[in-house]
Amino acid sequence: MSTASQATNNEIREFIRAQIASIAGLDELTVDDDTPLFSVDGMGESEAVLDSLGAFELSLALMARFDIEIPDDLDVAAFRTVRSITEFVAAMTQAG
Q1: Three-class SS of residue 31?
Q2: What is the domain class of 4-95 according to CATH?
Q3: 59-74, pLDDT tens digit by residue?
């Protein structure tokens, strides 16, 4: 695998999908790029894949694997889907 600063979007995406599947107890193939990871309206409109603890676990894994810092005031939209997390991590690794 590439170093954190050399990780491709595909490597980042596959790592994220594997982590989400592991945390949520899902088959990795069921987690696609646009699967909403959290309930859309808090009322069950969209089934949540991760809860707050799962999001925390994912954040820790991303920080450890890609040597990035995730700011406390991060816009939650950055963690809405695998695609948005991939874009965020790719931007953070290129900036660092």
Answers
A1: coil
A2: mainly alpha
A3: 999 999 999 999 989 8
